[in-house]
Amino acid sequence: MKYILALDQGTTSSRAILFDSFGNVAGKAYQEFRQIYPRAGWVEHDPKDILGSQVGVIAEALVRAGADIKDVEAVGISNQRETTLVWDALTGQPIYNAIVWQCRRTAEMCDALKESGADKIIYAKTGLIADAYFSATKIKWILDNVQGARSLANAGRLRFGTVDTYLLYKLSGGRIFATDYTNAARTMLFNIHTREWDDDLLSLFDIPRSMLPEVYPSGYVYGSTDAAFLGRKLNICAVAGDQQAALYGHLCTHKGDIKNTYGTGCFLLMNTGGEAVQSRNGLITSLAAGYTRSPDYILEGSVFVGGAAVQWLRDEMRLIDTAAESEALATKVPSSDGVYVVPAFTGLGAPYWDARARGAIVGITRGTSREHIVRATLEGIAYQVADIVSAMERDAGIKINQLRVDGGASANNFLMSFQSDILGCSVLRPAVVETTALGAAYLAGITSGMWSDAEELRNNERIERTFTPSIGKEKRAKLLSGWRSAVSAARIR
Ligand code: ADP
């Protein structure tokens, strides 16, 4: 048996999953690592923890699969996006901790970009909204604040990488200095139209070009790991940012294909083919994973509070003991009886972009019960997802006919069924829910020749359950109209 090893380096844990030639999980292991919060709103990772946890789980995954390292045909990497590392090329040592995507330390720098109007240039070139999430301001912060960094950078000694680049560099013993289009597209330095690092943006952020890695397609033979790591050289045949890897894991390779990941927050990505769609609704335009120098474009939108609303029901409202219990409670009542929960705890994202909005519960009567509130909270997640889907449909001029799902909360059958009702289309939940790792494995396996193409994989695809709408157009319109009123209530300040 031959295997593909997927390394899924996430924000809170590193995972290694071994997939067999049928795309089944043969063995997996994961390890959480330390989150560092030096100040309110700041988040860092120790680069040693990222590398150590990622390498540490490989052996365990092999043992669980009963596989030998020589049976591994190729390695694919998926990673938390935007998180920024800077190291000295001479020593290979990072000069600062990894600044994590969630870190808000450069929020003021981004406000200044908006005031100066530079955000418009950034959007036109990168498809991104000028925000502290993306790598550019984080690199600038390191160069401006770490002692000696600026002079090392000017001398051409520093290297910047997102987590994929750092792993490639370390796993190859310093021989590979590269990234892929999906990760490059999240740096705010990469022009998604010319598909090159952008000199205007580099000078805007005062970042020398010598710091930047080479950019390749996601499916590409990047080189091999150093034998010192695993006792054997392995070919690294794919790299992709986690959300794009998940999109590929769902085989959303055609225009109009769309997926949503229901985690703490929700991440929706739609493949828009060869067209970089300009959003009028505050969505991001970016690049999909592929094998060529002209990857497909995507539209991306996120819901800040997704599964986190269920955690709120459990931890703050104490209406449920476990996240899974929400499903049983929600189905005890035939409807939410006019109650809406808008979980805008930290404001509303696309298509509203209202940072001042706050959560709201509306439509309560004397008869409102725990079950109604729980049900309305799950529905609130689905409505937010529907708002983004509809923004994507309007921006791209595409009507979707199915949504593919993954992530922790996609296990909730009530939520998936209501999502289908409110979208008026099918919701497809795959049998292999490790979609991010699966996408990295697919990309690596096709690049290495284990599989011929996405069509071959599509023929073997297994959908665990398909949810179809059980309500008609009129009922849907009525529910959506109630949701819009509830959102208005959440925006009154
Ligand atoms: P992340 O990758 O963001 O950590 P996961 O994909 O692991 O998230 O999903 C965890 C989230 O899913 C949590 O917010 C949790 O509340 C929610 N969740 C897990 N199981 C269920 C369930 N059965 N019903 C509803 N929500 C759930």
Automatic annotation (TrEMBL):
Instruction: Tell me the enzyme class.
Output: transferase
Single biological process term from Gene Ontology: glycerol-3-phosphate metabolic process
List the catalytic activities from the record. Answer: glycerol + ATP = sn-glycerol 3-phosphate + ADP + H(+)
- What CDD domains does this protein map onto? ASKHA_NBD_FGGY_GK
Where, in this chain's numbering, is glycerol bound?
A: 81-82, 133, 242-243
- GO cellular component entries: cytosol
Q: What residues does ADP bind to?
A: 11, 15, 264, 307, 408, 412
Q: Quaternary state and partners of this protein?
A: Homotetramer and homodimer (in equilibrium).
User: According to its UniProt record, which protein family does this protein belong to?
Assistant: Belongs to the FGGY kinase family.
Q: What is this protein called?
A: Glycerol kinase
Source organism of the structure: Candidatus Coproplasma avicola
The gene designation is glpK
